[in-house]
Structure formats: C-alpha cells, structure tokens
Write a structure and sequence with these properties.
heterodimer; A: about 180 residues; mainly alpha; B: about 500 residues; globular
Chain lengths: ~180, ~500
C-alpha cells in the first residue's frame, strides 16, 4: 500500500475540525450557528479540493521535458531525482526525530509547570536542556540557569508581582486546590 | 492656540521630567519586548508609583512609557518571531525573515524610523483633530465597522496569492477559532464543551505566542543552526541602512500612519486591526507583492507606522469624549481620573495646554524609544547568530510565562502549546499563519457587527450606508487588481511566445 502523505493527514485533521464545528453547532440557536456553519462548510469544501490537489495525479504539476533523442537528459534527471529523494528521506527522518525530541522537552516543561509551577520547573528545565541537549558542563549550565532564574524571579515575582503559577502539588500543600 | 502649545511645551521643559520620560521609554520597551506584558499591564503596574505627583510629571512617565511599548514589541518580533504585543503581529511576517537573512539591524532601523514617524504623525493628528473630530467619529457605525473587517479579511486573498486554497483554509480556520466562546448576540456558549474558561473565547496572546514564537523555536531546533542562516550579512546591515530604506518609503509611512490614526480613533477596533490593515495596504500598493513574507521592508514600514500612529489616534476619543479606544487607553483613562484630569469636551476648551503637553509627550516618547532601540540594535542583532539550541530553552520559558500572565490561567499555557503544534505544521505544509491570525483577530468583530448592522439597517445594510458602500467598492477593486494584473502579464507572455 502506498504510504499516506503527511500533508494529507494534516488536511484530514482540518476536515475533522471543520466537521466538528458543523456537528457541534447544530444545537445552537440559528443566529449563533449560521456564520460558523457557513465558514466550516467553506473550509470543508476547500480542504476536500486541497486533498484532490495533493492526491490525484491529474492535478500534479507535469514535468516539462525536452526533445531528447537518446533520453540522456531524462536519465540524468531521474538519477538526480533518486539521489535527492534519498537525501530528502534521510534528512526528513532526522527532522522527524528532532521534532519528537523537542516536543518531548516541551511536554516535560508543561507537565513540570502543571505539577511544580514555574519557579521550580523553569530552572530544572533550563539546566537539563543545557546539560543534556547543548552538552554544556554542569557548572556552565548551572550558572546560566541561576542567572535566568534570578531574572525571572526578580522581574515577574518580586517586581511585577504576577503570581506565577505554583503548580498543583505546592497549591495542594498550601490548601489552595 | 500658540499660547497653549507653548504652555504645553513649557510644562515638559525640565531635565527631571525628560529623565523620567527616558526611564519610562526604557521600561515601556522592556514591557513591549517581553511577550504577554502589554501596555495596559505596564500602565496598571506603574500608576500607583505616580499617584500624587503633578500631572505633567506623572503623564510624562506614563504616556512616555505607553508610547514606547510598540517599538519594544517590534524588536522581539523581528529578532525571534515573538510578537511582544498583539499589535506587532504583522511585523513578524517580514521582520523575522529579514533577521533570517542576517538583516536584523536594518529591520530594526526600518521599524524604528517608521515607528517614530508614525508616532509623530499620530501626535500631530491628536493635536489637529481633537477640536473637529466629533462629527467624523459619529459617521462610523456597525455597518462601517463590519466593512472595515471585510477590508481586513480581503488581505488574505492577496497574502496567499499562488496558494489561494491553502490560504483560504488557514483564514477559515482562524475564523472558526474566533467563534469559540459566548455569542454576543444570543448569549449562547459556542464550542465551549462545558469549559467556563472558553466562555471568553480563545485568548489571543497565547495563540500568537504559540503560532509564531513557540512554533518558530520548534522549527529552529528541528532545522538546527542559528536564526540568521546567512551569517555573512551580519555586520554588513546596519540601522542606518534601515533608516535610509524607511525614508525611501515616505509615502507608505504616511499612508500607514493615516490608517493607524483612523483605526485608533474608532473605539473598539484595536491596534492589531490597524497593524494588519496597514500590512495589507503595503502589500496591495507594493511593486513586489510576491516578496511579502520573505523579508520585504515594506512589510515592516506600513504596520510599524500604523501601530505607533494608532496611539495618537486612540487618544482622541479618550480625551475628547472620555471613550477609550483600546484596553491601554482604558487604563490610561483611569490614570487621568486618578491624577485629577477629567477627559471630555472641556479638555479642548479649558485645558488645551494639557492636550498639547500630551501631544509633546507622545512625540518625545517615540523619539526616546527609537533612540534606545537604535543604540541597542547592533548588539541585539548578534542574538540572531547564537545557535538556536542555546536560545530555545530561554525563549520557550519566556513564551510560556507570557502565555500564563496575560490572564493568570494555566489553560492559556495549554492553548499556547496547541497552537504551537498547529503553527509548526501550518508552516511546514505551506498554510499561511498570517492569514489565520488576520481571520482570528477580525472574526469576532466581523460576526458581531454583521448581526448588529442587520438588526439596525436590514439585510442590505451595506447599500444603505454610503461609507460602507465606498468600502465595498474599495474591497472589490483591491482584490481584483492583482488578478487583472497577473492576467495582463500572462497575455503579454503569450503574445511574446
């Protein structure tokens, strides 16, 4: 089976979202639903058109070929294409891995903030990122972390008094949750 | 009149006041630079500090600070694709690509010059229009507001020429997201799934932080390297180049400033609308619309002139009628009242010297902000050659703090994350984030004013209101011109072949 293109999956998600807007809007009063309904329908239609663009060979751009008696140009192009594709696949593979790594880091950061709050999570996150990802020595990572944490604390907590989120663990200890 | 002008200037003629304005400008720039800290937050924090001070000193500090916030936001938009305030969002579209090309200092020079000239234009508009503005503002009603949103939405078609289907999908998604929340007309909760936090709709600040800033950090990590890919240009581009480029676009600065002042004067539209309308105008009138989004200086000039000119414009209804034109102006109005100034028609008749003092503060505040920005530009430019990996943790942390502090809700951090992932994939598969943002900003206004206009004037309200009709004709012409031009080009090419 042919591998489904990632961009097609993205369009399918868009179709799913617009369908959701139509479906969940059905219970709303007419005035509330009319414009969202029309917009969602419009997006749905466009997304279907885009899928057709990306999947049907008829819509794909045709390669402009030259008159080439011995097909040398075409063979050369094909060879180049194969090399490019190979490189691209490897590059993409590398990209996907890196994407997963950064998403993991972000997820760790968010979960950390949720459980431990900004003031505890940020220094841990910054230190670990510099130490593990950037391969800094632990002293260098610690110094950067300390400076960053001090700036965050002084600006947002001491000066602006923004009451940064403290995390559910600390808040439950304090009886706030 | 001349006496009032001189009296206004005299009230600021003190080293102490100028020093306070300079400090205010610096603080304003820092607040603008950091995402999530808006002008209204800065004002709210510093009002208690100036309580009890004479009007000229307190206003010099507060308004000077407020006038500098926009330019601070432009700097982070240019350097990191992080719009410092929601009103700098259009600056990202071309400012950041310029940084990627190693032209960050030039971009800051352009933004600073356009901001300064826009700010001075706004101050002049404030001075000139205050006594005569009332009938003009009264001409604008829901029908005209609706058509202004259509003008803004029409930009999507131009912005995404070449990938029109993807552009319209992105715009449509932006509109759909803007519909989430309590419907102003019927009072019913739409697409909230029982979550109270969604009743106010999706908060715009976390959305743009996610869509642009965090998504950009993800991309930077995935791509590797630094922001400025062509490091050879670093050091070659200077602020002076940017100033020269901006002065070459005098007409665009003037037109962007006019758009900004006009939108600022109309309460309820907001600075983001001014920023986006000016971007669209810059694109429509450009000789190279295809280079927009890839680092065209005109994409910075127009929006920057507009968002600074907007401040002067927004002060007009605030001072003349006591109607704040924006959230920042609402807080400033509170500050006026606290320090003993009562905005209203009397301001023009009895306190004209104070009005001119405020005009001078806006002008001087802009000069200070630009000066500070220019002094730091070359140093700030070096941030773009730091390896992306080293920037990612710090900027991610600041972005999530910025998302949280706008409303003090953890849910906004999640919103930022969701839109970061969406923004990353949108960029990867060629869906315009700019189109999404424009639609998101204008979606709520579009729907609200449509319903109000239909109720007030009937279904064919556009044809019953002359300004609406003019705006409709303007939209039709501005959308069709690029298509006609491209068809003409095609015909010429076919004839040659």
């Amino acid at each position: 089976m042919k591998k489904i293109n990632a961009s097609v999956i993205f369009i399918l998600i868009i179709i799913f979202i617009s369908f959701g807007f139509i479906y969940f809007g059905l219970d709303l009063p007419f005035r509330s639903r009319v414009i969202p309904f029309l917009v969602a329908l419009f997006v749905l239609l466009l997304a279907i058109i885009q899928i057709l663009f990306e999947t049907l060979p008829v819509f794909r751009k045709k390669e402009i070929g030259k008159i080439d008696l011995f097909h040398t140009e075409r063979i050369k192009m094909k060879q180049e294409k194969i090399i490019l594709r190979k490189g691209k696949v490897e590059n993409n593979k590398n990209k996907e891995e890196r994407l997963l790594i950064i998403l993991k880091w972000i997820l760790i950061l968010i979960l950390g903030i949720y459980f431990l709050g900004f003031l505890v999570t940020l220094p841990i996150f910054v230190f670990l990122f510099y130490f593990v990802e950037c391969k800094y020595t632990w002293t260098k990572a610690l110094v950067i972390t300390f400076i960053f944490w001090m700036i965050v604390y002084l600006v947002f907590e001491a000066f602006l008094r923004t009451n940064l989120y403290r995390g559910i663990i600390l808040m439950s200890i304090e009886g706030l949750v | 009149m001349l006496v009032a002008i001189l009296a206004g200037l005299y009230q600021l003629a003190s080293i102490k006041i100028l020093a306070l304005m300079l400090l205010g400008s610096f603080i304003g720039m820092v607040f603008g630079f950091l995402p999530g800290l808006s002008g209204s937050i800065a004002l709210a924090i510093f009002i208690p500090f100036v309580f009890g001070m004479p009007i000229n000193i307190s206003m010099a500090f507060l308004l000077g600070m407020h006038a500098s916030i926009m330019f601070g936001g432009s700097i982070s938009a240019i350097l990191f694709n992080v719009p410092g305030t929601s009103q700098n969002v259009a600056t990202c579209f071309d400012g950041y690509p310029m940084s990627q090309n190693g032209r960050a200092a030039e971009a800051i020079g352009i933004a600073g010059t356009a901001s300064l000239l826009g700010g001075l234009f706004g101050a002049a508009v404030l001075a000139i229009s205050l006594p005569v503005i009332r009938p003009f503002i009264m001409l604008f009603g829901p029908s005209e507001y609706f058509m202004l949103t259509i003008v803004g939405l029409s930009i999507i078609a131009l912005l995404t020429a070449g990938t029109i289907v993807k552009g319209l999908i992105a715009g449509g998604l932006g509109l759909l997201v803007s519909f989430i929340g309590l419907d102003y007309i019927t009072g019913s909760a739409r697409y909230t799934f029982g979550y109270l936090i969604l009743w106010d709709g999706v908060n715009f600040i976390p959305v743009i932080i996610g869509l642009f800033a965090i998504a950009q950090m993800i991309e930077l990590y995935v791509k590797g390297g630094s922001i400025a890919s062509r490091t050879s240009n670093i050091g070659k581009s200077t602020v002076i180049d940017g100033i020269k480029v901006a002065f070459l676009k005098k007409g665009l600065i003037l037109r962007g400033s006019m758009i900004g002042s006009l939108v600022g004067m109309i309460p309820g539209l907001g600075g983001t609308v001014a920023n986006i309308l000016a971007y669209g105008h810059a694109m429509k009138t450009s000789k190279e619309p295809n280079t927009f989004g890839k680092g065209n200086p005109e994409g910075i000039v127009g929006p920057e002139a507009a968002n600074n000119a907007k401040e002067g414009g927004a002060l007009v209804p605030t001072l003349a009628f006591g109607i704040p034109g924006s959230q920042g102006m609402a807080v400033l109005l509170g500050a006026f009242v606290m320090i003993g100034m009562v905005p209203g028609p009397e301001m023009v008749t009895e306190h004209l010297d104070i009005v001119f003092m405020l005009v001078f503060i806006v002008a001087i505040g802009n000069i200070f902000a630009t000066g500070i920005g220019f002094l730091l530009a070359n140093q700030l430019q070096k941030l773009t050659i730091i390896p992306g990996k080293q920037l990612v943790p710090i900027i991610l942390a600041i972005c999530f703090i910025g998302s949280f502090i706008t409303n003090g809700r953890f849910s906004d951090v999640i919103v930022a994350l969701i839109f970061a992932v969406l923004g990353y994939f949108m960029k990867r598969y060629g869906y315009s984030r700019a189109a999404f943002t424009i639609a998101l900003v204008l979606g709520t206004l579009f729907e609200r004013y449509y319903h109000i206009a239909v109720r007030l004037y009937g279904s064919f309200f556009i044809f019953k209101r002359p300004i609406s009709l003019i705006l409709l004709i303007f939209v039709i012409i501005s959308i069709s011109i690029p298509f006609v031009q491209s068809k003409k080009k095609k015909d010429v090419r076919n004839n040659i072949l």
